[in-house]
Amino acid sequence: RRPSAFIPLGEILQEGAESSRRQLLIEAFVSAGRVDNITMVMGLHPQYLSSFWKTQYLLLHMDGPLPYHKRHYIAIMAAARHQCSYLVGLHMGEFLQVGGNPAWLQGLHCAPPKLRNLNEINKLLAHRPWLITKEHIEALLKTGENSWSLAELVQALVLLTHYHSLASFVFGCGINPEEEQDGGHGCHPPSPHSDSSPASDDSSGGKDAMQEVEVLMERLKLLQESQLEEEGVTQEEMATRFELEKAESLLVAPSDMADHSPQSNLLCFVEDPEFGYKDFTRRGEQAPPTFRAQ
Fold first, then answer.
1. Coiled-coil segments, which residues (predicted)?
2. Which of 65, 145, 172, 289 is the right S-S partner for 152, CB 3.0 to 4.6 Å?
3. Between residues 28 and 164, which one has the greater pLDDT?
4. pLDDT of residue 201
5. Which residue of the set 84, 110, 187, 268 is catalytic?
6. CATH architecture of 66-177+263-272
7. 190 versus 207: which is more confidently predicted?
8. Domain coordinates of the chain in residue numbers?
9. What secondary structure letter does DSSP report for 202?
């Protein structure tokens, strides 16, 4: 199985790849004993991979206030929030390798209360970060048996945001599971083709996906044309119309979408699974102020 459902294998495994990329992949193999599909795909941009890999290695393997097994468990919590089973499976294996308690992998309810207390801020960071207040931080730092130190909490929050972002990369690049990952329980992005076989140009799933994109682009074209014809229609109103059209097209899911529902091994790490993104800039609604950081 190729590393990405979207990128041709020949493009990833080019002969005579630049020396910097080859050296990075060799270092990854020597360090971890394997080269995962994220590294293979990100290796198309060696400088970015180098920065990413060093950062992630620091977070997971270097000195820090959190024990190694708790770092991997926090990664599992973050990835499960975005239903990214590729990362959940990857870090379940890493969690066990560094001596984590297998019982914790039965679900969040089996983890220590201190880790369970991260659930609320994990949920908000993943879907509506603008709702986080100083009270959320204070609640975790308050004195008590299950309190966090400031250093521990900083590392935990960086891990959460790192893996929320990495889940987007996994879905956006169509990262396939490694063959040893539980028979293919890797990332299941909302894609109409089956994970049981590689996506190909002549597969019915691939055709369905292309048709959906074509329909969406046609609707966008019509909206742009109507924008030229209608006077007094603002850019913001046209953007709202396009979002409504896009939402409608996404609601018409292929018949085999049920195959990609989150597995139980994801939901057991998620509390309040219905909580998700909600636009906070809708007109006519009381909304929290937008936090802008340029």
1. none
2. 65
3. 164
4. 43
5. 84
6. Up-down Bundle (1.20)
7. 207
8. 14-62, 66-177+263-272
9. T
